[in-house]
Amino acid sequence: MGARILLGTLWLFHWLPLSAQAFFGRALGRLLHAVAGSRRRIALRNVELCFPEKSLFERTQLVREHFQWLGRSILERGLLWYAPAERLKRLIRIEGDVGLAERSERPVMWLVPHFMALDVAGVSVLLYQTRKVVSMYQEQSNPQIDAAIRRGRLRLGNAEIFPRADSAKPLLRAIRRGDAFFNLPDMDFGERDAAYVPFFNVPAATLLAPSRLARALNMVVQPIVAEALPGGQGYRVRFLPPLEHFPSADALADTAAMNRWIESEIRSSPAQYLWVHKRFKTRPAGEPSLY
Q1: What are phi and psi of 113, to 5 degrees?
Q2: Cα separation of 235 and 228, whole Å?
Q3: Structural domain boundaries enclosing 246
Q4: Is the peptide bond before 247 cis (omega within 30 degrees of 0)?
Q5: Which of 43, 57, 153, 287 sits between 20 and 30 A of 220, alpha carbons compared?
Q6: Per-residue pLDDT tens for 91-150?
């Protein structure tokens, strides 16, 4: 019943002007900040680790603002899942070379950090590509929510998503045949295929796969950063120039460079990054939890 109410609410709200959705989304975020104590504490701890130079007041205010962007991202998911493509095109401001994957003779990997408008970036690549897009996703425990996410992300066609828990072989086959890979590189998935690489000067378990995969399959690596704009102004999605000297023969150095790039983007818009994720959950052997 809870899932049906949530999905029904998202469907109803998607009819509203974006300015109204933004207003209610920020209100939802203020409510979540008040009641979601565990996630609030995770966010505060992450911000403390990443911005030790900020005062307690500054960190607290950053997290309050973050939750309001988080509330928007939840409520506006209905817009991305149900609104016509033409409405989405009017709301999304594209900057940079959105057509790189269309022209490239080599397969393209998009590196897309976890900002609040991440799903807007996903919609953007589908709106402007004829080349098939593939990605991985985390299956949800609630089957109705899981099905809704799959429908929402696949509804524009020309896409395929693979559960992260499954074998990587279907994904590799898709990339080899020329599909573009929408890759989310900045979450803690444990020590497997990862290394402890600095993230805001804190060792963080970070997947080496972006570098290794790009090198093995001779891929072009293009970063994408999505940003929600205030009120009803819409979204901005920046398709940045392909990374130079990435991949190299040194996957560890590549991964450190990737983290430094993500850090620089976070510093430009810190409240819109996904702070409620335990980015530093996995620790080296014998090191205590940071949470």
Answers
A1: -65, 165
A2: 5
A3: 86-272
A4: yes
A5: 153
A6: 999 999 999 999 999 999 999 999 999 999 999 999 998 889 999 988 888 889 889 889
